[in-house]
Automatic annotation (TrEMBL):
It comes from Hymenobacter aranciens. It comes from the Bacteria. Keywords: 4Fe-4S, Electron transport, Iron, Iron-sulfur, Membrane, Metal-binding, Transmembrane, Transmembrane helix, Transport. This is 4Fe-4S binding protein. SUPFAM superfamilies: 4Fe-4S ferredoxins. The keyword 4Fe-4S applies.
Length: 447
């Protein structure tokens, strides 16, 4: 039988210790279910922390056995054979569980009471108040980034860039998005996330939020408002000019941090079709324009003492928060990881990504250079791109990659066996060929 018709080799059998680690993960998930089902507060706490311990030990153990005990290097074999990473039954079940959790978290938090109460002690020590559904979510979110970040460190340990980038998102999620906001509440200051800026954290420049921060935070509140405005309109253009959008999307942002760690097994699922590219352009930029419009309307309405627009601008902000801030970024953005890949929100919905992307495409020095003469068309780079970019076609032509959607994660370069791709902050003159090719592609795609 010709090689083209031979069946793919079977997936390697799991080692006994690997099975044991996965069993611990399953036992941890069972422990969370027992926490939900048990009404006794003492047993709730026992089940809950035992579950977190089993999940942590099992995940770390499996990651070490899977990647730490293998030779350094990224192997992509078996991704489309495994049910959990090829939209099989396991992927659909995982997606259903994640989606269901977000729906309950946002709109039916009372069903999570038995998971929230065991965290009261931890919440009191960190924030000086009982836990709520958002503290539960923050704990789960940070734990996921930490555990799957450890997996990424073992998987990409041969790449210094990937190691530093992974440590960076772990640090910002743990320190800036979890511990620091909690400590602010402990000292009776407004809760504030220093690693999130407008337009992603869209309400930080709304008149009501600005007034609340200044009134309740005094000098610190004024600094928070200044920090948010300066990061959005001064630091973001400067940093993007030198480093592209990667400085935020792949190094700082909590959404990107979860995508790069917990979402790493699903990065190959991103749609590479031209139809997906069309939808990307048609959705993300109108969302960016919408939040600009809402912010402007809110300030205009405030300037006229609510005479000009009344409650219309406020209702627009509420609907934006419901459809974009909750359903798109949470339910769809994370719940659909196992089906559509890890960057659905970043690619199609995030207004910060749109803002950074426009700066990166038209203003930044960042690019990914390619050496077409060395490309062997293996497809590893395109397969690894979580933003749906067909990297291979650029590599084959030797064209530099300057795309608004590229988050500069560098995994395409890391998985390339020939060193064809290189992340650079080069002179803008070197971007001319890329801009010409991209403009031609855009005209063809949108026509």
């Amino acid at each position: 039988m010709p090689d083209a018709y031979q069946l793919a080799p079977p997936l390697p059998a799991r080692l006994p210790f690997e099975r044991a680690a996965l069993t611990a993960v399953a036992a941890g998930l069972l422990g969370l279910l027992l926490t939900l089902a048990d009404a006794d507060p003492h047993r709730q706490q026992t089940w809950f922390y035992a579950a977190l311990g089993l999940l942590s030990v099992g995940t770390l153990g499996w990651s070490w056995l899977k990647y730490g005990q293998q030779p350094a290097g990224v192997r992509q074999d078996g991704l489309w054979q495994c049910a959990s990473t090829s939209r099989g039954a396991a992927a659909w079940v995982t997606g259903l569980v994640l989606t269901g959790f977000y729906i309950i978290l946002y709109w039916f938090p009372d069903y999570l009471t038995h998971l929230i109460r065991p965290l009261d002690g931890f919440s009191h020590s960190l924030r000086g108040r009982p836990a709520d559904q958002w503290f539960l979510y923050g704990t789960f979110y940070t734990l996921a980034v930490a555990l799957m970040g450890a997996r990424a460190l073992w998987k990409y340990r041969h790449s210094r860039y990937q190691a530093i980038r992974t440590l960076s998102v772990m640090f910002f999620q743990t320190g800036f998005a979890f511990i620091l906001p909690g400590l602010l509440q402990l000292f009776q200051k407004p809760e504030f996330y220093f690693s999130y800026f407008w337009p992603l954290k869209y309400d930080y420049l709304f008149p009501s939020t600005v007034g609340y921060l200044i009134d309740n935070g005094q000098a610190l509140g004024v600094f928070m408002v200044f920090w948010g405005a300066a990061m959005s309109f001064i630091a973001t253009p400067i940093l993007t000019y030198f480093y592209g959008k990667r400085w935020y999307c792949s190094w700082v942002c909590g959404c990107g941090g979860l995508a790069e760690t917990a979402g790493d097994p699903y990065r190959h699922l991103a749609d590479k079709s031209r139809a997906a590219w069309r939808w990307e352009v048609r959705i993300i930029y109108p969302i960016f324009g919408l939040i600009i419009l809402i912010t402007a309307l809110l300030w205009l309405n405030t300037a006229t003492h609510n005479v000009l627009l009344g409650s219309i601008s406020g209702k627009a902000a509420q609907w934006y928060g419901f459809f974009i801030g909750s359903i798109f970024s949470g339910v769809v953005g994370v719940g659909f990881y196992p089906i559509f890949g890890s960057r659905v929100w970043c690619r199609f919905g995030c207004p910060m990504a749109a803002y950074l992307g426009l700066l990166q495409k038209h203003f930044s020095r960042f690019r990914i250079s390619t050496n077409g003469g060395q490309c062997i068309s293996c497809g590893n780079c395109s397969n690894a791109c979580e933003m749906g970019i067909d990297v291979q076609q650029y590599a084959q032509r030797g064209a530099p990659i300057v795309r608004a959607s590229c988050v500069g994660c560098g995994v395409c370069s890391t998985v390339c066996p020939r060193g064809v791709l290189n992340l650079e902050n080069g002179p803008r003159e070197g971007r001319l060929l890329a801009s010409t090719l991209i403009h031609a592609d855009s005209l063809r795609i949108l026509s």
